[in-house]
Amino acid sequence: MSDLPRKAVTRTAKLAALPLGFAGRATWGLGKRIGGKSAELVAREVQQRTADQLFKVLGELKGGAMKLGQALSVFESALPEEVAGPYRVALTKLQDAAPPMPSGTVHEVLAARLGEDWRELFLEFEDNPSAAASIGQVHRAVWHDGRDVAVKVQYPGAGKALLSDLTQLSRFARLLGPLVPGMDIKPLITELRDRVSEELDYEQEAQSQQAHAEEFAADPDMVIPGVVHQSDQVLVTEWMDGVPLADVIAKGTPEQRDRAGQLLARFLFSGPARTGLLHADPHPGNFRLLPPEEGTDGADESGESTGTGQWRLGVLDFGTVDRLPGGLPQPIGDSLRLALAGEARAVYELLCEEGFVKESVDLDPDVVLDYLLPIIEPAQAEEFTFTRSWMRNQATRIGDPRSPAYQLGKRLNLPPAYLLIHRVTLSTIGVLCQLGATVRLRDELESWLPGFFWEYEQEPMVAEEPTDDVVSGA
Description:
Elements: H1 8-34, H2 39-61, H3 63-73, H4 81-96, H5 103-114, E1 122-125, E2 131-132, E3 136-143, E4 148-154, H6 158-171, H7 173-176, H8 185-194, H9 196-200, H10 202-215, E5 222-223, E6 227-231, E7 234-238, E8 243-244, H11 245-251, H12 254-275, E9 277-279, E10 287-290, E11 312-315, E12 321-323, H13 330-340, H14 344-354, H15 365-372, H16 377-380, E13 384-385, H17 388-399, H18 404-409, H19 416-435, E14 438-439, H20 441-448
Parallel strand pairs: 5-11
Antiparallel strand pairs: 1-3, 2-3, 3-4, 4-7, 6-7, 8-10, 9-12, 10-11, 13-14
Helix pairs in contact: 1-2, 1-6, 2-3, 2-4, 3-4, 3-6, 3-8, 6-8, 12-19, 12-20, 13-14, 14-15
């Protein structure tokens, strides 16, 4: 049967061709410059061709290749504006669409997992998928009780494809570095690879999604579809319409952007506190902006409001979660609060206790604080506008090898317990910058982040310009 390209030799050959393609385009660009074209124009053409080839291959292969593409998609706002355009278009295509698998293959999976009489479970079933992603695709259907449902079907061979792709991609991860300035791609690939088993486990995904659906059932601002049925490689959930977040990013109104950003930040920080789970795949394809619920956008006879009357955030895909029974770790809130208060020594001691600074490393607490303050700027203001330019400035400051901040960052350590939290937070910030949203982030932190509260009447400390003396004794 025709399904996800899974023969190792075929997938390996396509991925192995990527570095050769990069080299070929560099040679092509050199030839164009020798021929008289300007360096700037040639660089843009090379970037365009590189983006087209890279994400075309990642999207076609699905599996781990597309998973990496989706993970990278939220960081396009860190790219220099003059080259962001080609990447932005190519990356967005990976957020919620991929070539579908044939209907015959879908039927075989459904028959194998739901039984030969699987059609009796549905009043209607659409063979054309409504969405296709890294390890499965979604079909719209009507359940036998009349409910509109989404039927998620896993690609045959998805597990082997995920592992094979990510192993292959890790071999030339350094070539992908320029795609996301300031980010080391190899640890991202390693972390994605370590979570393959979770991604493939639809029973675990169903449990995580249902836990969220039950907790947020009465929430006026969040919508999580309930689970209708689950079996190996097939997950049936309530259908959810709405405006894809990618569309809000591309053409949303300022009000929609701000509302989506506020709710995205709220979901990030409230989820662990309310469910003990952190949704760990925050790319735009997993979110929808829904209009106000019927009856909530007006007033009753007395003039009292009947509800918020505001857009709501719909959340999909709970295949990857971080289990945090006590919510987000309190040291995050403690260190953030202390940093904003300018308590350099206390912050440094806490970072050492948590393993962010290894025992063999000796750093200047004041320099560490100066390194952190620009990153946590959004938590300092009453409200903060996330922009691509702010994200680019942070990426340049931390990612430029000539920068003192880069040299300091190389000496810090990211403990395993914080790895996924770190990636999810960065990814969410990337989406907020894509939205260009103005968000009252401090409100969400005070409500949901253990250890964080705002108690400063005086102005918080502001980072000074770093010097080359980034470590004590240097």
